[in-house]
Amino acid sequence: EAEIVRLRGEGRRVIGTEIKGEMRYRGVRIHGRADRIDRLPDGKLAVVDYKTGQPPSRRMVEDGFALQLGLIAMIAEAGGFDGVAGRAEAFEYWSLAKQRGGDGFGYVEEPILEGPKKSGIPRADFLPETERYLNDAISRWILGSEPFTARLNPDIGGYNDYDHVMRLDEWLPSLGEGGR
């Protein structure tokens, strides 16, 4: 909570909440909903994604499995949100979960590699890396001929609408035994 109060005191102002936007990229419609976008004092943007639990880890973002912040920033930079445009400089998860190593609830975290952090993406590379992953996905699955992969990283928890039909639990163990 103190972190959120500090961020408000930095001269940020909310310029959009729960807004839908879209852009065209390589002829493909990319669309999404931004939980919140703030204008920073220097005129750049902060993209905020609210989480009721733990946000994706910096490693997941670094490995390309959680690209929402970067894609929302790309849409904003392309002018895809009504009344919101500019380059994003901050990419924040605002979590309501219990603070790690503390007693309070609520914290702000960026999947940015800086200081003592061992994973994440350097701030200057965040949007180029998001674009690289987007280009790869479009080339392979949308415009290419590769079939969609049921679950690129089976170690990531969670439930998918198609988990019950892909029978992942039946064939996944055999992959570890050279069963490809």
List the helices and strands and how they pair.
Layout: H1 2-8, E1 13-25, E2 28-39, E3 45-51, H2 58-62, H3 68-77, E4 88-98, E5 105-109, H4 126-142, H5 163-166, H6 168-175
Parallel strand pairs: 3-4
Antiparallel strand pairs: 1-2, 2-3, 4-5
Helix pairs in contact: 3-4
Task: Tell me about this structure.
The structure is a single chain. By secondary structure, the chain is α+β, with helices and mostly antiparallel strands. The protein has 6 helices and 5 strands; from the N terminus they run H-E-E-E-H-H-E-E-H-H-H. The protein has helices spanning 2-8, 58-62, 68-77, 126-142, 163-166, 168-175, and strands at 13-25, 28-39, 45-51, 88-98, 105-109. A 5-stranded mixed beta sheet has the order 1-2-3-4-5, sandwiched between helices. Strand 4 (88-98) and strand 5 (105-109) form a beta hairpin. The mean pLDDT is 86.
Question: How is this structure best summarized?
Answer:
The protein has 180 residues and is of the alpha+beta class. Helices cover 28% and strands 27% of the residues. It has helices spanning 2-8, 58-62, 68-77, 126-142, 163-166, 168-175; strands spanning 13-25, 28-39, 45-51, 88-98, 105-109.
Keywords:
alpha+beta; 5-stranded mixed beta sheet; globular
Count of individual beta strands: 5
Considering DSSP H and I runs of 4 or more, what fraction of the residues is helical? 25-40%
Spatial arrangement of strands, main beta sheet: 1-2-3-4-5
The major sheet is characterized as:
5 strands, mixed
Unreliable stretches? none
Q: What percent of residues are in strands?
A: 25-35%
